[in-house]
Amino acid sequence: MSIKMKKDNKKPQGLGPTQRQLRVGEQLRHVIVATLQRGHFHDAYLMDNADQVTVSEVKVSPDMKHATAYTVKLGGGDTTEMLASLNANFDVFQRDIGHEIRMKFTPKIRFVEDDSFENATKIDAILHNLPKAGQE
After folding, report:
1. Distance (Å, rounded) from C-alpha 100 to C-alpha 76?
2. Residues forming beta bridges with residue 112, ordered by sequence position
3. pTM to 2 decimal places
4. pLDDT by residue (tens digit) across 49-90?
5. Are 91 and 109 in contact (CB under 8 A)?
6. What is the mean pLDDT of residues 100-109?
7. What pLDDT band is residue 13 in, cutting at 50, 70 and 90?
8. In the chain, how many domains are there?
9. Does a structural domain hold residue 6?
10. Secondary structure class of 113 (helix, strand, coil)
11. What gap in Å lies between CA 135 and CA 54, rounded to an integer?
């Protein structure tokens, strides 16, 4: 008599995004950038400054219903107004995503500031200030 063990095909939690999440995130980023380049907005800030918005990454939730777009303002500066305008006009981006990408659900987009560049600069400065081997 052989005992068959039940296979657990679920991915363990905490191992990062799946290949599908990465692929969909990149497709979403391309559509968001294309929408920004077209510049068909009713928002005065986005009409004037859409070319200054850089979308560095889009992360998608495991159920593909929510997406977070990490954005940076070209040239730096305060991003409060930019993020407020982007989040207020999320429906424009969501409509374009619905037209461009075939998905069961069109993800709801949320725009946040990407601070990874600032963090990388801080880490780089810390590493340069460490004493070299043999120096104390």
Report:
1. 30
2. 70
3. 0.76
4. 888 899 999 999 999 999 999 999 888 788 899 999 999 999
5. no
6. 92
7. low
8. 1
9. no
10. strand
11. 41
Does the residue 76 lie in any domain?
A: yes
Q: What is the CATH number of the domain that holds 42?
A: 3.30.300.20
Average pLDDT, the chain: 85
- Asked whether residue 40 is domain-assigned, the answer is yes
Tell me the residue range of the domain where 61 lies.
Answer: 19-129
Mean local confidence (pLDDT), 35-53: 88
Helix ranges (H only) for 39-105 are 44-49, 80-88, 90-100
Residue 52 lies in a domain: yes
Ramachandran category for residue 134: left, alpha or beta (phi over 0 → left; psi -120 to 50 → alpha): left
- Cβ partners under 8 Å of residue 72, min gap 6: 53, 54, 56, 79, 113, 114, 117
